[in-house]
Design brief:
The chain is an alpha/beta fold. It has eleven helices and 14 strands. The protein has a five-stranded mixed sheet, with helices on both faces. It has a five-stranded mixed sheet with strand order 8-14-13-9-10. Helix 2 runs parallel beside helix 4 and helix 5 packs across helix 11. It comes from Leptolyngbya subtilissima DQ-A4.
């Protein structure tokens, strides 16, 4: 995992538990005013650099060594190489620019080259639900027996002039910071980041005596509101359907869910939408937090980062805190500081523009006989 909190999963997790935030006021483009941003370095990065770091860490952690010719690749992004395209658009010599290497699917291709894969390569785009979509597409490749092992995840490098200007026109950008679920929340903060998981069948993992698994995928639910380009459906029709399907196909009852990693962008509409979904769908409501107050909103990568943090919470049996304004909350069980717990099931939410809804259920790794998909 690579975020503004750290360039490894361990650094991101430890800094998150310490209550730190990677959000800083910055002005990377002179033509635009200073804004709070969550950047990995001192200047905007490139998506390929994020992926290279994240993939190298993931395969090393899984005790794998390239070439991994039989390993599938599902890597998504909602913006992909937009920063490169904006630079090329300003260039005087368009023909000399390597635009073919900046097509939307080339992040997944770069990962396939990095691990020397000769297996299926997919590059989903589903707005801010991209990360969960990528993980679930990889899960399906394993479940169907098409692959024994798949590299899944997403990356985003959204700090570009056009992205900033677009979100500014929507009135969605915060001016001081990101405060998910605070009554006075003011908007989102764009963040850079990537998260990559190694998803492996139980039989493959057992055959090679792989390292301890972080957890298993229990199931997922996905839907589309078809309501508005940017606003969520106020009737919660699509998000309720995604949650319902996730619980059904995971074989879960609402009371078995003890933690939810929320989408939690810090915008007025999204946070109120999620609070209504959780308070109406669960009794009592589960513990919940958003980590975007620490990492910023990494758009298409946010679901993959959220899933990775859920897996770390399962491994360490600690709920990650909701970084940001914590004096008051519109949700009754917001995690405001790290909470040790007996965690068995966690849900990860992602809700994107165009009404893209994704919910992924992750559980503790149990005996080999019970495992349907290990991460």
């Amino acid at each position: 995992m690579v975020t503004a909190l750290g360039t490894t999963a361990t650094a991101t997790w430890n800094n998150l538990l310490a209550g730190k935030s990677g959000i800083r006021i910055g002005q990377p483009f002179s033509e635009l005013p200073p804004r709070p941003l969550a950047m990995v370095g001192d200047k905007p990065t490139d998506i390929e650099d994020l992926l290279e770091l994240a993939v190298a860490e993931a395969i090393a952690d899984a005790q794998l060594t390239p070439p991994l010719t039989d390993c599938g690749v599902v890597i998504g992004s909602s913006r992909s190489f937009q920063g490169r395209w904006e630079q090329m658009a300003r260039s005087e010599s368009w023909a000399d620019n390597p635009w073919l290497e900046a097509l939307p699917h080339m992040g997944a291709i770069a990962v396939a080259r990095q691990i020397q894969s000769q297996s299926p390569v997919l590059a989903p785009m589903a707005a801010c639900a991209t990360g969960l979509t990528a993980i679930f597409q990889g899960y399906e490749l394993v479940r169907r027996g098409q692959c024994d092992r798949v590299i899944v995840g997403a990356a985003e490098a959204p700090v570009t002039p056009l992205t900033l200007a677009g979100f500014e026109q929507l009135g969605a950008l915060a001016t001081t910071g990101c405060y998910p679920f605070a009554p006075q929340r003011e908007g989102l903060v764009l963040g850079e980041g990537a998260a990559v998981l190694v998803l492996e069948s139980a039989s493959s993992w057992l055959a090679r005596s792989g390292p301890k698994a972080y957890g298993r995928i229990l199931g997922g639910g996905f839907s589309v509101d078809a309501y508005h380009r940017t606003a969520p459906d106020p009737t919660l029709g699509g998000s309720r359907l995604a949650l319902k399907n996730c619980l059904y196909y995971s074989g879960l009852k609402p009371q078995q869910v003890s933690y939810v990693h929320a989408h939690g962008t810090g915008t007025r509409l999204n946070d109120a939408h999620e609070v209504q979904l959780l308070t109406e769908g669960f009794s009592p409501p589960p513990w919940m937090s958003s980590t975007k107050g620490a990492t910023g909103h990494t758009l298409g990568a946010s679901g993959a980062i959220g899933a990775a943090l859920c897996l770390l919470a399962l491994r360490h049996q600690v709920l990650p805190p909701n970084t940001g304004a914590q004096d008051e909350s519109i949700y009754p069980k917001l995690v405001t500081h790290p909470i040790p717990t007996d965690l068995e099931v966690a849900l990860c939410f992602s809700f994107g523009f165009g009404g893209q809804n994704g919910v992924l259920a992750l559980g503790l790794d149990r005996t080999s006989a019970e495992i349907s998909g290990s991460v």
